[in-house]
Request: fold
Amino acid sequence: MLEEDTIVPSEQFLDEVGKFSGTKFINYLESEGSKVLYDNTKRQRDQLPPYYDEIKFKRAQNIFVDYAPNLLVLKLAGLITLLNEETSLRIIMMTKNSSTPETACTRYRDTVKHVMTWYTSDFKRTQRKLWQSIHRVKMMHHSANSQARKIPDMPRITQLELAGTIFGFIGFAIIRPECFGLTALTDEDYDSLVHFWRVIGHLLGVEDRFNICRDSLSETKAIFHALADIIIRPHMLGRHENTLHMQLAAIRGISMFTAPLHSKVFLNFTYDLVCWDNPLTQIFILT
Reply:
């Protein structure tokens, strides 16, 4: 049995021609990661992973300074995709803090504040802001799982859901950069962004063996594409009955503290990011 901080070697995920297979990694994540509850992660919150690279991390933070609007809109698109996945959706609905535009405004404004803190702070002991933010987010996840434990048949957060959350923060920057004005970034820039979220994911409780952000940019791209095709796309095409309600609450709530967003336009834009070859013509009938 692998320890939580064991990085599974690339050789385990090679296809028949010896090429890294994102599909094999996602299959492993679904079969094994779905069995590991978030509660089982015992890592101390103030321990950086051994692969932390300060230069890459700070480069990613500098990229955010230049592309903050792009990366925050990208995060919203990631949130919309997350609300298609039944386990994540049911847990979010259970908390009852984002089912209306008003409550969603508070929840997602706080999320944006956390993301801004991660992108603009450092890990120095004399400046604890980043650590405190990480701790608060972990406590919210633990609280959700504790609450879910008391409800019959309520799913709980596992490593699989955490992987989907990390994709929501950075996935579309890697697989659809042209849709967010990020094509001027270099491979070194993308590599730094991946490293940033690899470290943040680690601190939030993502076990290294299930971390979709790898040391290799090409492997990460393969995993992100496979995750979009195997997990996100089917959920988007087979939308849960409560998905649209929660998505509209999120968009309308976020519009309360950002520039107004047209719900139907943004929803169709987000769906086309993943289902671009299967247009969902007029799938949203909004009043």
